[in-house]
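pasting for the record
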Amino acid sequence: MATKIAILSDTHGLLRPEVLDRIAGCDVIIHGGDINKPEIIDRLKEIAPVYVVRGNNDKEWAENIPESLTFQIEKSRFFVVHNKKFVAKDLYDADVVIYGHSHKYAEQMVDGVLWLNPGSCGKRRFDQEITFAMMTVDGSETAIEKITIPHT
């Protein structure tokens, strides 16, 4: 059976009800940093196990959160970091790279590696979309769905 993963970043202290509704029932949650409040992680942990990295706005309270993570879900190997510029040049063993920081959704394959920025589903900045991603991992196969939340 496939693993259902919610991928969030840049919540900046805001977990929208629309996001919580959509990620209910996930098997795993990945947060790409700029959480801003420990309560965000606590709430996400009520839903599913959480992999989280520290962002540039995550201060003293987050000093024990790593700046990058590597882990495996099913047969897919993940590397997570907040800012793409801190991704190691040597990613031979990663299948998926998840990053945040820019608040802009991006999804592309580079040399067989999926690079994914789920955008920001927290406080809206400028005219940017409010987005996150849902991923399904089945063995070594991944499928991504971009989720856009209408802003009012």
